[in-house]
Amino acid sequence: MAVDLPGAGAQAYLSPRPERVAAIERASGQRISLCYQCQKCSGGCPLGFAMDLLPHQFIRYVQMGHLEELWHTRTIWLCAACRTCVARCPNGIDLAAVADALKQEAVRRRLPAKESAVQAFHQAFLASLQNRGRLHELSMLIRYKLKSRGPLTQDLDLGLAMFRRGKLKLLPEGVRRQKEIRALFARAQQGGNGSGAL
Amino acid sequence: MARYSYYPGCSLHASAAEYDAATRAVFGRLDLQLQELADWNCCGASSGHALSPYLAHALPLRNLVLAEAQDQELVVPCAACYNLLRVTQAFMAANHEEARELNRDAEEILGRPYRGQVVVRHVLEVLSTPAMLGAIRASVRRPLHGLALAAYYGCLLNRPASVSFEENPEQPQRMEKVLAAVGAKPLPWPARTDCCGASLALSRPDLVGHLVHEIVSAARRAGAAALVTVCPLCQANLDGRQPKGREMPVFYLSEVVGVALGLKGAAGWLARHLVDPRPALRAYLA
């Protein structure tokens, strides 16, 4: 298959590795081999303009069994899981689920994410839940800011405006039976039921 | 009086407290009793499924199990929570080995398994049945005549199609029906089910600003005075990420209905918005 590799500027040829397709089909629950490259997914994708591989190109890599090329793409992290592609796909493929499976694999292998802020946000969000079972927006924001190492002043105005209107609560709330939440997180980390990447 | 269990979700206890207050007030006026689900937990939202296939289903499942114990239909105001609860129901119903394993965990950790008996409904679904539209019409005190509104559905209420309660998930109509019932003028416009990018709102505000701008511009071209949402994430994103200048207010559907029903407290809900919506509603507020 001839493809334009992201940023390479030249065509490269990929040889198919069908033996690797089964694993990602199992991890994502999607029958990726059904894709016949109609490109409707890319036509409707709201984030396509910012991706390094369009959704149909991304799926083609998966079909060829070339997964490591995808671990380093912006595409897997910029998918907003809006599922416009799923609604349009004539073969019922959930591309967001495929992107999720690749994100999880990349995190498990401790590979640096091309969209590190997106990964940092998801991790800060889950870390906020892990202790109390409910999200505390304010501490999640602070944790995210420290983790993403982005500019601390970004969105400061928005945060202050929200705070002034009482939209950011100071004190967290939690569920009463926190041990149940902790047990579910522990099970996720043990890799029960399709392992986690926490 | 109809009684429901109610799963507010994290946003409605904090950033979207006005959606919570407006929804409770409107349901109360319509004789629908909401009983908050005891000890509910966060559904995990987009971060759950992004990083953990296990938590993606386990966190919503705990809420489903709690709701089954209350033995009432479960009403959900957030499109993301609603989506994840419904997707989890479908996952459990498919009954693959992963689902059976998760249910064994539920029994062990939560003390009871999921039996697949709870009905999950979004707030919009409850408010837009023919009977409820009639009840709303009969209760309107201040009809919103002349108020042109763009109903914004976003992604998660109607995608994947299997979670949708609309006849045609690509062309949803339920919000327009409710807006018409309170006398407002719902507009035809093209971006009703476009994605606002809320899951990237903090990590890629530049991209999300672009999506928000596209949606608001489309509503403005159609002649809308304001947008109307049924999701706290869409609302926060659209309300907070418009370029400074001519910002368009973004209502929750419950607020619009509450104003039309003449409910006390409406001014307090609207005071919490970032883009002040009161000028657009001046003629209708009590």
Question: Which keywords apply here?
Answer:
heterodimer, A: 198 residues, mainly alpha, Fumarate Reductase Iron-sulfur Protein, Chain B, domain 2, two-stranded antiparallel sheet, 2 strands, disordered C terminus, B: 286 residues, alpha/beta, Glutathione S-transferase Yfyf (Class Pi), Chain A, domain 2, Rossmann fold, 2 domains, four-stranded parallel β-sheet, 13 helices, 8 strands
Q: How is this structure best described in words?
A:
The complex is a heterodimer of chains A (198) and B (286). Chain A has 198 residues and is mainly α. Chain A has helices spanning 21-28, 40-44, 55-63, 68-71, 75-78, 84-88, 95-108, 116-132, 137-148, 156-164, 178-190; strands at residues 2-4, 11-13. Chain A folds into two domains: 2-108, Orthogonal Bundle (Fumarate Reductase Iron-sulfur Protein, Chain B, domain 2), CATH 1.10.1060; 116-184, no CATH class. In chain A, strand 1 (2-4) and strand 2 (11-13) form a beta hairpin. In chain A, helix 1 crosses helix 7 and helix 8 (116-132) crosses helix 11 (178-190). Chain A is globular, with a radius of gyration of 19 Å. With 286 residues, chain B is of the alpha/beta class. Chain B folds into two domains: 2-122, Glutathione S-transferase Yfyf (Class Pi), Chain A, domain 2 (Up-down Bundle), CATH 1.20.1050.140; 140-281, 3-Layer(aba) Sandwich (Rossmann fold), CATH 3.40.50.11810. Chain B has 13 helices and eight strands. In chain B, the strands form two sheets. Chain B has a four-stranded parallel sheet with strand order 2-1-3-4. In chain B, strand 7 (226-229), helix 10 and strand 8 (250-252) form a beta-alpha-beta unit. The longest helix of chain B is centred in the first third of the chain and has 18 residues, at 53-70. The mean pLDDT of chain B is 96. At the A-B interface, helix 6, helix 7, helix 8, helix 9 and helix 10 of A face helix 2, helix 3, helix 5 and helix 9 of B.
